[in-house]
Sequence to fold (771 residues):
Amino acid sequence: MLKFDQVLHAHLSGLKEAVTVWSETVTKLEKTKEKAETGLQGKADKADWKGENAGVTQAFVRKTAKEFGDALTEASSIRNILRDAESEFQAAKAELEKLVAEAPGKGMRIDQEGVVGYLIRPDSRSKDYDGPKPQPADFDAERAAIKAAIDRANNADDVASRALRGLVGSDKMNFSGTNYDSLAAASKAQDAEDAHAAYELYKKGDDATPEEIDKLNALFKANQKDPYFAEKFALEVGPKGSMEYWADMGDPSDGSRLGVDHRDKLKELQTNWSLTLATATHSTSPEMEQWKADVIKAGGEPIQTRGTSPYGFQVMSNLMRVGDYDDKFLKDYGNGLVVTERKMTGDGRLPADRAWHQLGGPSHLNWMGGDLGNDPMVGFMEGLGHNPKASTDFFNSSIDLTPENTKDDKKIDPFDYFTKDREWPDSINDKGDLTKEPGYNALGHALESATTGHPYDADPEGLKDVRTKENAEVMQKVVERYGDDPKYMHKQPGIDDSLGKMGAAYIDELNRSLETDSDGAMEEKKNSPFGANDAKGHSRFGSEFDTGLLWNRGDAVNFMGIVSQSETGHSTLSAAESLYTTSVLDHVGPKPGSTFNEMDLTDTRTTLRIGSEAQGIMDESRMAQIDKDYEKDSEEHKKAVGKTTEWVKFGVGAVAAGGVVALTGGAGGVLVPLAAETVGGAVTTFIGMETDDVAEKYEKDEELKKKSDELKQQALNDGKESSLRPGIAYATAPGWTDEQSNYLDEHLVEYVRTSRLHARDNNLPDPYEKD
Fold:
């Protein structure tokens, strides 16, 4: 692989000279070919040879004459490959040279390894500095441009080297006669060659050796983002071909040991196959449009193996657990899947698991972990979890249950169906237990992508706040459903972590609702410091939300309270609340180093009041649920209480940039919106605060000897102290004088201590009584 400095400093004169030499060779061979055809072969064709000489010599002369033509074709191909490769290298090199030259004018520098940094670091600038001040988005754009240039050179290098090796070939006695009129043509030919090689390995099915599975994986990995390869393979195998292959892999009755001895290889194959088909679905060729239609059509048909007969939807859903599928196809597939399930269950009169029974018992269709893959909705939801636009559209739409009948208007709301009406089947998890967790976990992933606009498992570093009006519409439904009754979260095991992440992604709007005086008000408090409004007061969710709320205070309290009944939900929301509160202080409070009076602290006090009250709502809700779940004074009760303040660790190692902060210290990649694009000193200070291991303290004998009520009060006090962190971070941010810092610490911290009591004034949701 070529590196930044190799492309930037590439000496291309030798390659350019080679193009010239090969062009001259082509000219000479054109004349030689003409002589061979009109002279050598022409005379041989006219000669009246008899006997053995006619059968040997004449054929030899013709073959020799043809070799001159093949030599010309091969030389032309070599010239074309070298010409286009030189052009690509030159373009990539010129792009890097341009980026390096223009970087200082943007306030950036690019070092010899291609690393982008500040030309003058912010902390090294003089007070009168008026030069460019690059933002995180500028650095992202620069890095992306560098990567694109290097990728262009590497792609040209890979295609050219493979093409040239193929042209020379292994036959030393004959020219190949392969014709490439361009580097692009060579790339296309290589894709077709690889697709056919993959097809030949596919035909072996589960009779393939582990080494052959490795070869198939290697072909997929090398080409999974290549549209031409993906389409060629998908079409050559066909819709049912993929389904039959994957169903056969999950049927051990024919004696195959792949699923027993090489689960890791099948897991990799499932991932690569999914990524390849995902790429293929973006093609709009007539053949691929038919392929997509045939996939959905085959969904309701049995795929017969030796010992099992899963439906097409059951198989195909496991081949869309990863990858960027075409949005329209994914939505059409989901519509077809729901329509089929409703027909198979008598329009919902039978439970969903009755639809997906198989003769011969369940197949092993999913090798990626979590479940065996027999409920097709699980794989489909995972697919939506990786495709935010498709997920958002799906949950904001309705599904026509009788598309063949245009008059009856029989529709179903997919959000209601999956979050309330559908009885998710039990699935066999990795431990061999029957549980509904895989289904609800996947549903949570789909809702995460639908509400945040990002794949649920995207690397949080570098992500931006991309929420739209459509994302917010799904989030409104989430808050209404899961804030309405604790049973929805508690009866859906595996969804609580996703609800916490969704709440964290909308913590700004939840705070805006909490600020209002009335539980039912749908207008924000005037001049609210909260929310996603821009500098002109406009909401990203549409003009109706410039002052309007996504949900009222009562709904916000219920949602935050219910989600916080879960240990994971409480931790995630608590960390998000503290970080968001700290960012608002940075944004609306007096800036460190400035002078201020009592009136200047109005928004600061409001911010801390709401943040402290929110933390109180969450702590009280979690404590009430612990009391309901465990017997008082039991070891389980005491340990659960001890974990309630462990959320402070989630800020450790958090990454803040571009208006969001990514919690990486324990929340598994949670995005929290900030009040401003640029991170201030309070946020930086907050992230850098050290934390104690409170839960570990509660594991010790002297703590466990205490009564639950005593430990609970101690934990609530610890929670109160933790809720002071935003105010302390603001008061101790760099830039304040000691006098200012002391004043803010005393004034604001005391304000938080009293404000936290407001949490008890709320009508908090009841803890859930488990069966």
